[in-house]
Amino acid sequence: MTTKASLQSTEKSTTTSKASSRSKVNTHRKTAVIVGVLFIIGTVAGVLSGVFTLPILGDIDYLREVAANESQIVLGALLVLVMGFPLAMIPAMMFPIFRKYNEPLALGAVIFRGVLEAVTYMVIVICYLSLLSVSQEFVKAGASDAAYFQALGILLKQTVYWTEHILALVFTIGAVMLYWLFWKTKLIPGWLALWGFIGALLYFAAPIANMLDPLHLPLSLGVKWGYLMIPLAIQEMIFALWLIVKGFNRSGIVFE
């Protein structure tokens, strides 16, 4: 009876362990899909925000254009938030997994690619919405006060410009941490993690080069130093689709 009871206990323990492992695999599969979807939502929202706002803000008489297209600017600002918050959630979603491998680095990714990145997005949104008030007052103002509101408009646009550079730096520091963790954990193929890591380093160089460039060109994928940002931009879309379709490598999952 003792031997039989022992065998039954062992079988029950094994069954429980297998069920627990399957549950964790399913949980990690869901996490992978959510992270992939968050990447896509953030990217699409960012592109749409640019479509709505850049033609207006790039106009010579942009204050009048902003005043005449208030809803478009508001929509563009909201899309910045739709871009920022999902992207900021990615390191938070990965933290419970990454902390098992390297908790300080996992926490660093949450701080840089989560908290600080979200703050910079909010600064940009505040500037967009503040431009609405400035543009409306500019339209109402007479010639004597127009210069004052033009100066405020320039200040807000420059704040957005430099905040975008800070955002790029914060984003890439977080990306370096994330892809280093993916490389070490082998949760995704090594080539994909290495591509992201190298792409993040190139991306990091783009805002620095642009800040030092006397022309102070827009920090954009198709403008001079912005070409350095293209490898990571492509990688993150392939990475997102990989997570949705393939999920994480089971060999990289730590079972506790």
Q: What is the succession of H and E elements?
A: HHHHHH
Sheet of most strands = none
Number of domains: 1
Q: What is the overall shape?
A: elongated
What's the helical proportion of residues?
A: over 70%
Strand content: under 5%
Our Rg estimate from Cα atoms comes to 24 Å
Cα separation of the termini = 32 Å
Model regions low in confidence, pLDDT < 50 over at least 5 residues: 13-21
Q: Can you count the helices?
A: 6
Mean pLDDT: 87
Number of E strands: 0
SS-based class: mainly alpha
Question: Which key phrases capture this entry?
Answer:
elongated, mainly alpha, 256 residues, 6 helices
Can you describe this structure?
The chain contains six helices and no strands. The chain has 256 residues and is an all-alpha fold. Helix 1 (2-57) runs antiparallel to helix 6, helix 3 packs antiparallel against helix 4 (143-185) and helix 5 packs antiparallel against helix 6 (230-245). The longest helix is centred in the middle third of the chain and has 71 residues, at 70-140. It starts with a helix and ends in an 11-residue tail after the last helix. Mean pLDDT is 87; it is low at 13-21.
